[in-house]
Amino acid sequence: MDPHTALMWHGGQTAAAAQLYPAAPRPWLDLSTGISPWAWPVPVLGPKVWQTLPSPAALEQLELAAARAFGLNDAAQIAAVPGSDIAIRLLAQVLRAEDVAIIGQGYAGYRAAWPDARVLSFENARNAGLMICANPNNPDGVVTEAREIRQLHNIRIVDEAFADAMPEVSILPDRNGAIVLRSFGKFFGLAGVRLGFVIANKPVIRDLRRLLGDWPVSGPAIAIGTAAYCDSAWHGLQRHRLAQGSARLVALLQDHGLQDAGGTANFRLCRIPGHAPDSSDLFVHLCHSGILVRPFKDRPDQLRLGIPGTDADWARLDTALKAWSSSV
Hints:
By secondary structure, this protein is of the alpha/beta class. It has 2 domains: 5-30 and 234-325, Aspartate Aminotransferase, domain 1 (Alpha-Beta Complex), CATH 3.90.1150; 47-230, Type I PLP-dependent aspartate aminotransferase-like (Major domain) (Aspartate Aminotransferase, domain 2, 3-Layer(aba) Sandwich), CATH 3.40.640. The protein has 12 helices and 13 strands.
């Protein structure tokens, strides 16, 4: 078995990478997740947030703040969840669809929740009982026009995990019955909070709440999420620097002979042009440099890179890529 197989399931596995490459410099630079390197500044939370159970009123305020940030008028159609990954798995229980189509090769959690799903193009999935579409797609950033998604009449799950930085691609607020997933951690740079949202018709929200129980997310997650979604000035700053960082990453990759193969404001996908369709040499080289990026079993010629957050991180990636490009 390829020792890198574990690193192909999802990003963020620096501990596993460190075991494979014990001589790599520390700390590891993790560019494998697509999570923003700039985090919303979390305030000090008082002892009450940690010592008491989350109240229904506080949860309602969180969902209302998120609904407003997403352009929704009805907070009754939104449910907070402890991360969008668990929402995907719970929706598999709520919907219980048999003819399931996943659009393109994307997030591994879809396959985990629906192991019998077919991987199809958007056009070929129009008649599926349930269609799962990441928009923008991960890892290539392909965007399906909101108009095309709204026009369909089957059950649709639209995973907008990376849409907060690119709100123009969202099908919200006029989703026409589609179920929309939103991730808190990727845009706000706070993946450890484990917070996400499901926007759906009320019967789906009701069934989802039944599975989630009385305390679906923690008190600290509620407090942090409510304040962060109300901070609209920070949202604008974050979108600007993510867009700038994405463009800078494209230029850096091209400077070292790598081809930009798509992406979002949070990450870029690169391909090695003019070589055999195998990116493992570059992946291994970066690992030896203590830099973890995201390889793909189904895309052996491509790697996904998140955005470095500091000048030192940019310099470290530049140095590693320069050493690689000069050796090939």
